[in-house]
Protein: MULE transposase domain-containing protein
Organism: Arachis hypogaea
Amino acid sequence: MKREDSWQLTSCYKKHTCSMATKIGIMSSQWLSKAFMKKICENPKIKLRSLIKKAHSKWNVDLTMTKAARVKQQALDEINGTYGEQYRRIHDYAAELLRSNPGSTVQIQVERPTEFELETPPPGTDIRPRFQRIYICLDACKRSFMVCRPMIGLDGCFIKTPYGGQLLTAIGWDPNDQILPIAYAVVEAETKDSWIWFLLNLCDDLGVDKIRWCTFMSDQQKVTLNLNLYN
């Protein structure tokens, strides 16, 4: 309009001859990840088809499964930070556990590249240590087990993350016949070496006098072989 900064609709054509576009280039995965941020934060396990249906009903945009996966991953990275950043702060996590749970045990083991031993590593070589294992035994769980029946269940399971790994656990039973976590560890793989490392740390926490009278229950034969360490 001439005398004011506004627009006035003067005519309306109800019949459209242009085709409907369901693929809009300006709606990038980065923009969509911010638009879906709240929804993914409320349900991080939301299915990709739910995001596709939401985008179609709200903006009339068709998303492919690949783009929907990219949108979800970008939103999760923004919410939780990247996995690499989380691993870089593993020592901060250990320090917080020890601060908030005095008397607990946290052991971190890293692996270093062979170039780390060189006085002058080749230029461009990444010599930073890489996370390998972490063992955690909270003081409250440890003290609780010392007055419970001497039975320990050992088991391991896969960790479903981009970096993989295995979760090793030592579980006891309290007087109410409920599960009592004693200690747990995140390791690179379920091997004889990783189980020996886990059980040695467990022995240091509980003491040999307590361990030698415990009955161990496990479905893994290699674990029972490792128990010979304490005989």
About this structure: The chain has a mean pLDDT of 85. The radius of gyration is 27 Å. Residues 29-80 form one domain. The chain is about 40% helix and 20% strand.
